[in-house]
Amino acid sequence: MGKKKLSLKPVNRGFATTSVQSKKGKQAVSTKASEQGGDIAAPHNDTPTQGTEPVKPEGEDGQLPSHTAAAQPKASEDDWDSEQAVDDAIYQGLVDRLQEKADKEVMRLVKSLDQEKRFAASFPRLQINDNIRDQAIQYAQDDICKEGCEPKPWNPAASGTDSDKVLLRTYVTFQVLSRLGFSDRRIEQCILQGLDDGQGWSEGEEWMWLNLSEDECRGVGEFASANVSAPVMDAPLIDITPDAPSLSLEKTAVDNKHLVVATPAPNNTESTAAPEAGSLFQSLEADESDSSSESDDELNLNKTNESWVTLMLEFEDVKTAAGAVKGKGKKSKSQVVMETPEMVKIKNKINRLEKEYMFNKKDADALLKAMRSKRVMERLEAKLKNIGTPPEANSAAPTETPPVTSVLDSFVSDDEGEDGGLFGNMLDEPPERPVEAGLAVNSTINVRSMPVPKQFSFVGNTAKAILRTAISKSSRQAVISYARLSPNPRVARSGLEIRWSSQKRRVWRMDDIACESVEEAENYVSTLALHDLVASGDLLPVNWRSLPPAYRDLWDELEQMHTETELAAKREIWKKIKALVDKKTSGKTSAAGTTASKRTFTSTSVVDTPSRPANPIYADNLRAMYEKRIATPAYQKMRQVRDSLPIAPFRQKILDMLDHTQVLVFSGETGCGKSTQLPAYILEDQLSKGEPCKIFVTEPRRISAISLAQRVSVELGESPGAMGNASSLVGYSIRLEAKMSSSTRLTFVTNGIALRMLEGGTGSSFDEVTHIVVDEVHERSIESDFLLIVLKHLLEVRKDLKVILMSATVDVEKISEFFGGCPAMKVPGRTFPVQVQYLEDAVEIAGWHIDESSPYAVWDRNRKSGAKKLEWTEEAAETAEDAEEDEEGPADPTKLPSSKYSSRTVETVNLLDSRKIPYDLIVRLLERICFEDSTLESFSTATLVFLPGLAEIRKLHEELQSHPHFGTRDFVIYPLHSSISSEGQSSVFDIPPQGVRKIVISTNIAETGVTIPDITCVIDSGKQREMRYDEKRQLSRLVETYISRSNAKQRRGRAGRVQEGLAFHLFTKARHDNQLAEHPIPEMLRLSLQDLALRIKILKVKMGDTVEEVLLRALDPPSATNIQRAVLALVEVKALTSDEEITPMGRLLSKLPMDVHLGKFLLVAALFRCLDPALTIAATLNSKSPFITPFGFESQATAAKKTFSVGNSDFYTIVNVFDAWRRAHDNTAFVRTFCKRNYVSHQNLQQIEELRQQLLAYLIDSSFVEVSREQKQEIARVRYSRGFKTRFVTVPTHLNENAANERIISAALASGLYPKILTLDVAGGLRTISNQQPVSIHPSSINFRLPKSEFGANNLIYYTLMQSKKLYAWETGPVDDRALVLLCGDLDTKLSAASMQIDRRLRFQVDPKSTLALKHLRDQLASSMAIRFRGRPLSDRQSQWFELALKCLAMGLYEDPQTVVVS
């Protein structure tokens, strides 16, 4: 008895008689197998093959027959000591750990790619210029070569990645790339040379498309045969009859990977070419591709037949060598061999010979039979020479007599009857049975009993019936045919063929196993086929447990064999993957060492944090200078004036409180002297004690900082103009201007400057500051509130820091509680009484009256009158924004009592449009006060008029200058606005000569912080312009609103500083009492927090991990929604990362006090050299539209607007009309005519130019835009020049070279405004990409009612989206898809699917090469822009990439790059 197999349980086995094998034959087979080895068959090729030892009869112990035993390797105790067994165990461990996870990932990715490919077919197609594409790919290849083409070793240890993850990633990469059609050789090359540590299949695919030709990547042209395998078909069965009529079901397509040989496979086989398709009853058709000719040159009767026999014998030898090899066991095994190209070539020659005239089939067969017999005898003689050596397998043969004997069976040759018609040569004299190529001489056929009980046949639970049913469900065109392969009457062997189509045929044969009857044989081979098709996925799973017992056992055996073969194949795959990974990581030790050394160098080269500077040392000369100064007459004189102020008696109390507390809240009423005296008290106290001090006083406006610094400097005895010198103790610092020196100890700064000073935190110049005074804290600006957050945090770090918070109307309790219950102090003021009059009083006193035709009348009343107007004025005209606000309707005016006021006054007040500034009423009031009413003339010395903005100031200033009385030398008229130069602002404090009266026209800049001492009368429009976040438009914009009651109190208080005053509020008393808010809404609650979020991230003082955490500490915390909206907007424009880390562009945007979307637009436009039109667009979007629509002239205004239309874009139209207006200014007499003729607002256009100048100044201040010193001076001169004549700033040429290129301007807009994109849906409508809301174009847009087909683009960009009757997009314009791909969002590409997506919102279909080019252009453009945002110059290569990207944006699809100039 032989050794018992360790891997199999003892089961019943059949018996077989065997013939003796020679040692020589065994060795030859082993050698051949080793030469052919290396490939592992696919799982569905696993079919029973002959075993390595005799098989016991079925039923004795249930052992698997010899054909299944071959799948189990011979196991012995010595095997585990072998190297192969150890390797198998290692790789089996990988299979157990990683195979399931890896296969799931591969299937997921493949399915995802297939689905993406189907979806991409419906995406809009995106193309780029071929020249640009090729140039980008060439640049990318050149860059890779510069970096080095050597293999890039992996270092998993350095990256913290374990080996299993590396193997898993490599396996997935290899399998996915293989599924995409790339050859194994290219995949290995890609992994070894193209992938960095941590990269996977996506990067591998990009490497393929970058370095291989498009034909090779697609598998076309000369690479078609390498990547696309021809259909594989099994050889047809011979001499069989159909089992049943063909099943008529629908034909199903089957993937080529399932068309594999299903016949018994040897241990090592070699792939062969696919045989040609042939039917069951016909020989294979000849392949006529071979051009060789075998025709005879001379007439020889026997030569043709002899050549035929020679070729037949050669064919049998080739066929035997190709497939009929022996196993490692004692018995040989055979299989149906697929035809190799060599076999096909020989068969073609045979076919041509058979068509020769001299060929005789009968004579040739006789000759062939003789030659075969001779060859068989020679082989037997050779084997008999080795008969003395007993075969190894005899030791394992059973001793008991088998109940069923094995029969030496002959095999029907597939080659016989090649051209014998339908029945071949069956009618010829049967030749002696030759030795089959598929069977060795000593082959053994094992007999297995496979009974089919009658009850199973009756109910149809046989393998044959189940197979037929399963096939009929899958395809009605399939044909099932059986054939008996053995003529021996004692046993039966069958073959099975299933033909789905001419391109798909499967064959199963019982070559080394037989059954006791034809029925058993057919069910046996049906079980083989059924299992094979189910395992391969060609058929759905069947209920195999309903089969007879013998066939259930067979199924279990097949399943076990299939599992083992699969495991072996998987082990080989992981072995290959492991070898690749080992090769890739071969240099990891040195790489790790290099990385470690670099890390060490980096850590040791870090500059130590500078130590905190020591407290400033008090200079003796400063004390001496102070003592000398207080003795001067100028100081003593001013000291007397100072001591008369209401705050003077509280001087010592204030100083004592500061000695005992760190924070003090100081509330001083108007006129008490708090803004000038309190900082001076602190300075004088510290200097007199010889203690070091540095005091900062923060003011909300620069005019306040300047005027207060000048006043305090004079009060401390300094000579005029000395401020900022070495001898001065007082200075100021505002944006673009500062007067400070090393001796300065008291500095007045704006809130913005204070915040920038505090950005450095501890360890900076901030450590020298001893006192911080926050003035006008009641205004609750966003900067002042944030300053409070920062100071509260710094007080915990700087215990020596003193903070004083002061204002006239501050909420003492609230501020005190915010700072932990700090002490508070209140000081009374000194003012004179002020007579307060409201709108109805002003109308009554002035005797002013309007009717329904007046431009100041409510517009609804004008509209309802139906009067056709022949003329229009700018005051009565509306912009689109005004019309939108009209839809909400103005508030109903309060009805006035007719008993107190005249009927004309009541009618006028009720008819007056509260949204408009009544300039005529203001002029009429001034006339009444100054000339007509003697009781009011005493208040006419100095009048302060409050208006909302510069445009209104300019309008009233022009009217007064043109007035016959106010335009004379008897009056001086001063405008006061933040854009006016410091010298111009300071002039309002001058006292005019005797007999000359002063009129100051100001914004709310004169409300607090600035005291014009001689003001006796105030006319308050009740309006102010402030930034608010518009919930309807979802953006921050400058809006005109009513003031609060506390603001009104401050304004009228300006008139009672020197005498009794008079104040007119141009709103009704009912509105004051019932509609005005008590206090203004803090800016933090009504503004976008984008700028503040950036400031938080710039601060070196860490106050929290997130923006939300910091802002929730505010005095009045904003809502979480507003915070999240701001952070999201910053992430969208890439000012912050997703982790809320600030980017280089974010640092620049923090210096631009504007909406971050427009800020980014300006930055990108500066880089793209199209700054001038960008400034116009940004300024217009921040203010009002230049187009107006007068009542009664709607159609004319619309037609005029259309004449300026450019490129179906509202943005280009704005630029066009502004440029036309600017050109019209060459003739100042014509500009008004131009505006009236074209229905544009001269006032709005002036405001746009002023904003352009301001935005350009921001860019220059941030140091992002480089201009010469002369250009800086010119911009400052134009901005702060006196007078109201419009002056234009010229943008430097180097920043404006692409101003005429609409594509580049549109690209810059897309970069800044993204994701404000509208996409055309299938139905032709517009939807937002953010939430897919349907959107309509607003009637004010030039694209209103424009057919969607005329846009010339798939997407539109917009700035304002507002909900009214519909969700309207206001300013719109087309945007090129290439601009979106290169500049917007996060890009996701799938090369194999030809898919490109931006944030999963915008989708395009792009060919792989173009995708690769666009991706490299995008990456290089982003890198170049980031470098420029950091303020660094580009290298030559980066400049080439940048210019190529600009050309891609600027060029059409078929333009020549040489003809497009973008620089």
Automatic annotation (TrEMBL):
Keywords from the named record: ATP-binding, Chloroplast, Helicase, Hydrolase, Nucleotide-binding, Plastid, RNA-binding, Transit peptide
Catalyzed chemical reaction(s): ATP + H2O = ADP + phosphate + H(+)
Alphabetized GO MF terms: ATP binding; hydrolase activity; RNA binding; RNA helicase activity
PROSITE patterns: HELICASE_ATP_BIND_1, HELICASE_CTER
SUPFAM superfamilies: P-loop containing nucleoside triphosphate hydrolases
Subcellular location(s) of the protein: Plastid, Chloroplast
Span of domain Helicase ATP-binding: 655-828
Keyword Membrane among UniProt keywords: no
Segments passing through the bilayer: none
Enzyme class: hydrolase
Keyword Nucleotide-binding: yes
Residue spans of biased composition, Acidic residues class: 873-890
Short name of one Pfam family: DEAD
Name this polypeptide is given: RNA helicase
